[in-house]
Amino acid sequence: MRVGIVGCTGAVGEELVKVLGERQDRLGGVTQLKLLASAKSAGKVMDAGVFGPLTVEEFSIDKVKKLDVVFLAVSGSFSLKYAHEIAKSGPVVIDNSSAFRNDPEIPLVIPEINGHTAKNAKLIANPNCTTAIAAMALWPLHQKFGIRSLIMSTYQAASGAGAEGMAELEAQTRAHVKGSAPEVSVFQYPLAFNVIPHVDSFQPNGYTREEMKVVWETRKIFGVPDMDVSCTAVRIPTLRAHAEALTIQTWAPCSVEKAKALIDEAVGVQLVDDPSSNKYPMPINATAKFDVEAGRVRQSIVFGDFGLDLFVCGDQLLRGAALNAVLIAEFLHEDKFEKPSGYKPTVLQRFMGASLSGPALWFTVGAVAATAAAATSFLTADSKPTSSSA
């Protein structure tokens, strides 16, 4: 397979080179790898691992049109300008930016969940890292129980802002130790020894665009356009790997034991859940791992038998970007497009709500029936003629 990476010098681009080197056999071998970037980076020699040292070339359509797959690790504006043109010239384009994620004509793909939507596509969008990490742990639960609503709080590493974000956190940490004032350019405030509840731009509804990406993308990937989703995204002073606290309300009754078993069996997810031994997901352990870690699985106090709480961690440069993009290419190469099954709530569940499913539903039906019978009895008695007094 002939492959190109546009934006190879950024954090995601560098990870794409590494992942391709580790997994090229799954693509039938990478016979050619082209590294492309802006004129500023052209001529730079990069260590491409198993591919050897490669010279970065300045991007042009002519340099990619004979390739099989082109990965875009660039800005949304670049993708909007060139992605369709690249795809029309020949290669399949897998775009890591947010440019096409909400486009109904462009598949937004996590191969293990909705790879079938990429069939015959020439341009495929890679999801936001925050969405991808959560989705991997939530999908097996959704297949079994059906997710009615999702509440997410994120703890996002500096690397979510790219190589510049990581460099700024490191510099701020050194400055803090030395007692000097930290320089701020990437983030809104000093990130070292701080948390910032502001990731991406604020929207008219008070949510940030990062938070709304979780809403839009989860619905699209799961194929549930009316799923209730809410997210609060927070930047924290870790270098790499995002963490997320997830609360779900389900359509069907769920249990902690069954949820753990489903997560443990899922591809791309590792169950790390043994509180008695202090084993739970953490960014420091999820860093540089392909699998998402999931644990702290609990029955929801709020939603009872129809809800779960869990905690997940994943390397957003891998599962949330480079790895997922390469997995899409692998999926296309394998040419397997079977649509996975998902939970379908009944009409009655949708009408009456998840809280009236199962035993609660029959209790409510019984109460309604008893009330109706009592009302009928009262009305019947009231309508009987009374005897006149002598």
Automatic annotation (TrEMBL):
InterPro entries: Asp_semialdehyde_DH_beta, NAD(P)-bd_dom_sf, Semialdehyde_DH_NAD-bd, Semialdhyde_DH_dimer_dom. Keywords: Amino-acid biosynthesis, Diaminopimelate biosynthesis, Lysine biosynthesis, Membrane, Methionine biosynthesis, NADP, Oxidoreductase, Threonine biosynthesis, Transmembrane, Transmembrane helix. It comes from the Eukaryota. The active site is at C129 (acyl-thioester intermediate), H242 (proton acceptor). One of its GO terms (molecular function) is NADP binding. Gene3D superfamilies: Dihydrodipicolinate Reductase, domain 2 (3.30.360.10), NAD(P)-binding Rossmann-like Domain (3.40.50.720). SUPFAM superfamilies: Glyceraldehyde-3-phosphate dehydrogenase-like, C-terminal domain, NAD(P)-binding Rossmann-fold domains. One of its GO terms (biological process) is lysine biosynthetic process via diaminopimelate. The chain crosses the membrane at residues 360-381. Belongs to the aspartate-semialdehyde dehydrogenase family. Homodimer. This is aspartate-semialdehyde dehydrogenase. It comes from Hondaea fermentalgiana.
